[in-house]
Amino acid sequence: MKKAFHAVFVIFVLFALILIPDAAASTSASEINFEMLDDAITAQMDKHGLPGVALAVVEDGQIVYSKGYGSAGKNRSMSAQTQMTIGSQSKSFTALAIAQLAEQGKLDLAAPVQTYIPWFRVADETASARITINHLLHHTSGLSDSGFGVVLPPDTSLEQAVRALAEAQLTAPVGSKHQYFNMGYSVLSYIIEIVSGQTYADYIQTHILTPLSMNNSTADPFTVNDLAQGYSRLFGFPLPMHEDIPVYGVGAGYIVSTAEDLAQYAIAVMDDGAGLVSPEMMKRILTPGQGSYGMGWMIFDGGAKIIHGGANHTFRTDVNLYPFRNRAFVLLTNEGYQVDHFISAAQLRDSVETIILDKTPPPVSEGWSVRWFGWGIGLLVLVLAILQTRNFLTLRNWRDRTRSLPTFKRVMDVAISFLIPTAILIVVFWQISGFYGNRFNLLTMMAYLPYALPDVFILMLVGSVPDYTQGIIKLFLWRKG
Question: pTM, whole model, 2 decimals?
Answer without folding.
Answer: 0.87
